[in-house]
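Researcher: Next sequence.
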Amino acid sequence: MFADRAKIVVRSGKGGDGHVSFRREKYVPSGGPDGGDGGKGGDVIFEVDEGLNTLTDFRHIRKYKAEDGEPGGKKRCHGADGKDVIIKVPAGTVIKEASSGKVFADMSGDNKRQILLPGGKGGNGNQHYATSTMQAPKYAQPGQPAIELELQLELKVIADVGLVGFPNVGKSTFLSRVSNARPKIANYHFTTLNPHLGVVDLDGAKGFVIADIPGLIEGASEGIGLGHEFLRHIERTKVLIHVVDAAGTEGRDPVKDIHSIQNELSKYNEELAKRPMVIAANKMDCVFGDGDPIKAIEKAFPDTKVFPISAVTGEGVSELLYHVRNMLDHLDDKPVIFEQEYFPEMVTGYMNEPYSVTYDEENNEYVVEGPRIEKMLGYTNLESEKGFRFFQNFLKESGILDELESLGIKEGDTVRMYGLSFDYYK
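Model: Next structure:
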């Protein structure tokens, strides 16, 4: 069975604790603190492996854990960093937080490698806390905790064009004719149990990738039949080819079929029903009698281009493919990427930690510090636009921006947070 969903548990490494110790050497009766820092915990990293095309491996291994950082030692010895855990997935895998269903990462396009959960920072040893009034500090900083999450992995194939339609309308035959794909073809429902990808090559024009989605049935969006299992695979496509049996070889009404499939697409995801669509009126080699099914389809769908074709003989197929290529040329060529909606800092429990906001007259800077800020910075990727935006919301929701304004901060003034400096702008 084609595996395109999996549920796994991942855990980042805990940061090593800082060490408390004091220098003890001959002829040095009162040595100072020399406790070393803890090592950083290992990261949870996802990488795209071009050799994979299913999520089958995750049926056998469901828990992935990065190593914890080692604690610091005597004589300012730094604890070893924990080893990262690298999880390989096929291109097109969307990673979601299992309970909320929010997108964590989309391993598509240029995103070939992503640190999903950073390991906890190691704690400072007591050597960092010596002051003129506290020359023998007997405490050290604990390492940041690990983060454990349950993830839902979903493989959404990467294709420009999706074939949709009821079972046994000729989608697999069409795909085998126009591309290098060789799906199994037989005369029974749900012949295609896997989504098949094929590359369409066109003379004098750019090719494109086409996906044959297993046949849908009415009620698929509610989970009836097997087709609903694969609807996710057309979420990345930009154009849909709706294949219908124009000859009605099984007594089906092509107009009713199109309405039914559109209804299923809309129930699953309203955006899918709005995608640019072309109708492939297949099995024209089997049309006999006085009726003209093409006119009936065109009358019912006046805004959609209808192509009479025969996947068996090849009639009309070339015209359809070049029309689809033209449609793609007029659409945004950027890949369909699912934006991040979930951030690990949501579960770190930092909101109850204390913080302080002060003004440093000597350096003319506003200083924000405290465990809450330190944890937030440790878990947030500020180089990511979404991460930085989340950090800005954190500053606003936690009341830090209000406190800065109460101290008289103005646009362009500098804010310092644990070695990072920002210019303040509303």
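Model: Residues 183-192 have pLDDT under 50 and may be disordered. The longest strand covers residues 148-155.
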